[in-house]
Design brief:
Helix 6 (259-269) packs parallel to helix 9. The strands form three sheets. An eight-stranded parallel sheet has the order 8-9-10-11-12-13-14-15, with helices on one face. Strands 1-7-6-2-3-4-5 form a seven-stranded mixed sheet. The chain has two domains: 5-95, Glucose Oxidase, domain 1 (3-Layer(bba) Sandwich); 104-384, TIM Barrel (Alpha-Beta Barrel), CATH 3.20.20. The protein is globular. Helix 6 (259-269) links the parallel strand 12 (244-250) and strand 13 (275-279). It has 397 residues and is of the alpha/beta class. 25% of the residues lie in helices and 19% in strands. It has helices spanning 129-137, 160-172, 190-198, 215-222, 227-240, 259-269, 286-289, 291-294, 302-314, 383-396, and strands at residues 5-7, 17-22, 33-37, 50-53, 66-69, 82-86, 91-96, 104-106, 147-151, 177-181, 204-209, 244-250, 275-279, 319-322, 337-338, 346-347, 364-365.
Length: 397
């Protein structure tokens, strides 16, 4: 698991700032760059806002430059990565990694729902500094960034600040797809859906959760009365305005029993959605305190999962299964499985080491040690190849 935050011993009375990592001595120095030295004898170029090293930092002439030695846990930092530095507390936070396909902008930790399985529990603390950080960082990001996630908390609670972020992404990263996670409840107000559509971002999709086909079941999962009706109205408004939509559901003991009926509800009532995501449980945040009411071994719900996938697929909806190791899925569902766990929190168990399909498998969240399926087992041979061999042998005989 990669560490995205680190404490450093350099404490200075300087305001927090955002900087892009440079590792080449020939890179142009400006007020937005931080030079990272890996060679203790190499000359240090002048003019950068900050200087980091993985060894004893060299002397830097500029009196206002921030100088710090990074811990080994941040040795992965590379050219084009972006960090936020808080000199007064000696903290470095990795905001963006140029080489990762899993960059996400956490805009707020405030939320108007309180989901039983929330991996990022809501906080009431003021966090508008997050928006300011990303507004500084977005212009520094690589133009070839394929996708950015927008997440929270609930991003729509930010009001105008959310549209500042989305507009900055549109203007500075016109080729970058945006995938925004939102509970969709505030889109019950048509004017908000229209404002989002009027932004005219070239590649924006909203990921909105719907946890049941029954209103009271959805409301129980999100711990908010009336949330189902608000979300469905929001979905209709977004579709009316031409905003692209993905429907999400987290699979656990409170959602799995009606999964086939939920799929029928989607297919009949929400045929306009572009994608349906069936998510495995991440054991972080509230899951730890609600585990006994949420946990179900994925091996025990494969019948419901198959029925739901077949229904959605039969109705022409694009469907994906996320966060499930392949050994817990029947091979006929593998074409729907995605390697989805963010690289900085993705791990494999020791038993996975010899598995023939490890390179294709999404593995586990780093939190999976809290509760793991009893059916994890490595494949000695790729099941699809084995099946093809059996068919060929049967044909030849």
């Amino acid at each position: 698991m990669l560490k995205l935050n680190a404490r450093v011993p350099a404490i200075r009375d300087l305001d927090p700032f955002v900087a892009r990592i440079e590792t080449s001595g020939d890179a142009p120095a400006d007020g937005t760059s931080a030079y990272l030295s890996r060679d203790p004898v190499a000359p240090v170029p002048a003019g950068h806002r900050a200087y980091f090293s993985l060894h004893e930092p060299a002397e830097v002439a500029a009196a206002d430059a921030y100088v710090a030695r990074l811990p080994e846990s941040m040795s992965y930092l590379a050219e084009g990565d972006i960090v936020r530095v808080s000199p007064r507390v000696g903290e470095v936070w990795v905001v963006y990694r140029r080489g990762s396909p899993f960059n996400a902008l956490l805009l707020t930790e405030q939320c108007n729902s309180d989901c039983l399985m929330c991996s990022q529990p809501p906080k009431a603390a003021a966090d508008r500094h997050l928006v300011a950080t990303y507004l500084d960082a977005i212009p520094l990001m690589d133009l070839q960034t394929p996708e950015l996630g927008i997440t929270g908390g609930e991003p729509t609670l930010l009001g105008d600040a959310l549209f500042d972020i989305l507009g900055a992404c549109r203007d500075h990263l016109p080729q970058t797809a945006l995938h925004m996670l939102t509970n969709g409840r505030l889109f019950q107000y048509l004017r908000l859906a229209r404002r989002l559509a009027d932004l005219r971002h070239p590649d924006l999709m909203l990921g909105i959760p719907l946890y049941s086909d029954l209103a009271y079941r959805h409301d129980f999962v999100v711990q908010a009365a009336g949330a189902f009706d608000q979300t469905v109205r929001g979905l209709m408004n977004l579709a009316r305005c031409g905003v692209r939509i993905e429907i999400r559901i987290v699979l656990h003991a409170q959602t799995i029993d009606r999964l086939p009926q939920w799929a029928e509800f989607l297919a009949r009532n929400l045929p306009f959605v572009e994608h349906v995501a069936l998510m495995g449980l991440e054991m972080m945040g509230y899951v730890r305190m609600n585990l006994e009411g949420l946990w179900i071994d994925p091996a025990d719900y494969q019948s419901e999962l198959r029925q739901a996938v077949e229904t959605l697929d039969r109705h022409g909806l694009n469907v994906s299964i996320y966060n499930h190791p392949l050994c817990l899925l029947p091979p006929d569902l593998w074409s729907f499985a995605r390697k989805s766990i963010s690289d900085w929190k993705n791990e494999y168990l020791p038993v996975c080491e010899p598995c023939a399909v490890r390179s294709e498998c999404g593995g586990f969240f780093s939190s999976a040690t809290l509760r793991t399926s009893s059916h994890i087992a490595p494949f000695a041979e790729h099941p699809l190849i084995q099946r093809a061999t059996e068919v060929n042998q049967s044909f030849l005989s």
